[in-house]
Amino acid sequence: MIEFVNVCKKFGRIMALNEVSLDIGRGITAIIGPNGAGKTTLIRLILGLLKPTSGELSVMGVNPATERDRLIGSIAYVPEKTAVYEKMTAHEYLSFFAALKGLDVDVEGILARYGLIERADDSISTFSKGMKRRLELARVLMSEPEILVLDEPFSGIDPESRIEIRKIIQTSRSKIVVMCSHDLHEVEQIADTVVVLRNGNVVLHDNIERLLTRIDNIKLTIRGVFDDETGRILGKFGAEIIELRKDRVTLIVNDRTLMPALIRELSSNYELFEIASDTNLEKIFIDMIKLDC
Questions:
Q1: Domain ABC transporter: where (predicted)?
Q2: In this model, does residue 135 exceed pLDDT 70?
Q3: Domains of the chain and any CATH numbers
Q4: How far is the CA of 120 from the CAs of 51, 131, 144, 156, 268, in angstroms?
Q5: Cα–Cα dist 176/61, whole Å
Q6: Which of 1, 133, 214, 222 has the most CB atoms less than 10 A away?
Q7: What are the tens digits of pLDDT across the range 59-105?
């Protein structure tokens, strides 16, 4: 478990994180926010590279800033910028780090698992950025860390590697995975929990399925003539009219779970014309960062 309790981090007069209280457990937690929101500061605090100005931070029961050595082997980090020994082959690279860590692992099996076995004896300098990212993930995960921290894992990645990296992250769900990403499409597909930062503050922290269900607005367009009875039904289900034409009504339904019952009640007088939802994580994110702007 990673626990932030009223954590503040200041750089001079700049408040990078402001009284952040956050529990991050097993599963994939995505940290999203605009540039300057505090994402990098949060990661560096988890890694023990920074010390909070105030508040308490615990990583697996350990203070990462003062007891960082106790987390060696338990926490792995893959930065946005790839950092591999490009003069080595992929096989040499993993074998080197396995020996360095005293690990008895099947290097060929690991390379196969990460889709790199066919390039095992090729120089890493010939790899795409996506292949290098997969190799980095193979390196840090072969020691079975309990925490995996990823900074922009999908940045600049080719389509094939994007699919492979998505699978790798998904299969790491039993760990504590903290992922900073601007790729909201990928976050929506693989994250269990989303944290939105804005100006150093946590403005949203929720399970992604519950978040999308709770916030998602559904547009319902029906054919027919609006009357008092229709208004009563819409009020009962909390539906709002956004467009009223002579023979057509377009509504917004805030709670998708009420949709079937609403349609049943309207079906005697109306014909369902169209049903659509335009809400995704990107829209939610934009709405959140616009607050107080």
A1: 2-224
A2: yes
A3: 1-74+145-160+171-214 (3.40.50.300), 83-142 (no CATH), 218-277 (3.30.70.1150)
A4: 40, 11, 21, 22, 66
A5: 14
A6: 133
A7: 999 999 999 889 988 999 999 988 899 999 999 999 999 999 999 99
